[in-house]
Every structure is written in C-alpha cells, then in structure tokens.
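chain below, 196 aa
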Amino acid sequence: SGNKPSVKVFQPLTEGYFFVIIPLKYPYERCFMSPKGRYSLKETSSLKTGPLRSSLKVAPKRFAILMDFENLEKNIDQTKLRDFSWLFNPILEQGKISCAYVFIPDHYGSNPPVRTLSNIYRFFCIFCPKKSGILKDADSVDSRMDELGRFLVEHSDITDLVIVSGDADFQGLIEFARWQQKRVKVVSAHEAISGR
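prediction:
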C-alpha cells in the first residue's frame, strides 16, 4: 500500500556487513545490516538538507609571533616602530594571536618601541645577552628565537608561525615547522616598509 521508502546499500565495510541508510523518523539513520536482515543502530543524526560544507565550521588560525627587534630596527624607517598595525592587522584578519615574543639585547629594556610592544601589544620581552667569544661577542638572538620557535611548534596548539626579522636566516626552523604541519610566514624589513 503506497510507495515504500528506498533503502540505499553501500559497499561492504567488513565481510558480510553493509552500510545502509534507511529513511525513518530522522533524515538519516546509520545502521549496519547483516545478510540475515538484522541491524543495529550505530549513530543517529538529524542532518539538514543542503551542502555539507555549509554546516562545517573552520577553526580560526592561531598565530605565534617571534620578532628580532634589533635587526628590524636597523633596516626599517623609525616611523614603522611607532605603530605596529602593519604587522597586526593582516594577522587579525585571518585569526587570533596566541602568543608574541620580542627578542632584544639586554640594554634595550627602556627603548620606547619595545615598551610599546610590551605594554600595548602584550609582547613578552626576551632579553638576549651577548655570548662572550675569543674574537668578538656573538649575538644570541637568532639561537634563542630558533629554540623558542621549535618549542612552540612542537608543544603548543598554534597553526601559524610568524617570524619578523631584518636579515636572519631561519631556514632550519622553517623546515621544522613545516614538518610539523605548521604554516610559516617570514616578514622581512622590505615587507615591513612596503606594508605587505
């Protein structure tokens, strides 16, 4: 009497069992049916009609920022160090900033742009004293940035790593982050000047 609802049978999941969709009370009820006709309800969901993509939410990106302040200061116009919107606005359009660190020499604590980064933009300041050497003192900023960057990539929930530096080469850190399926953006002094 009347039209019977159609039953869709899909490929076997394991030997002797099939995945079927039976139109019952809810739009879709998922069952496993044996060859003898018995089934057990495994999962019930009331899916809305329309494309599946419309019901999925994409998680926001979570950024970590590492800034080599001394190198950046040497290579860009000083007006760029008064307002850091050129850095933050493009990031905030894509997601949220989980953590931000500025690496500075030990005598930069009273530098006005550093205070701006710390007090207004909530950067954590990491002081990097020079390493004493035989011929000359070596800068420790690059090695500290590399260490902290690797730690954040491996032990935090960030999705993106932003490295802001004037001239340093962080190829090892970049490759490590990509192996851990993290996206990496290196912001050079040229990009800071051009506003890209």
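Confidence is low (pLDDT under 50) at residues 9-14, 17-50. The longest helix spans residues 141-155.
thats it, cya
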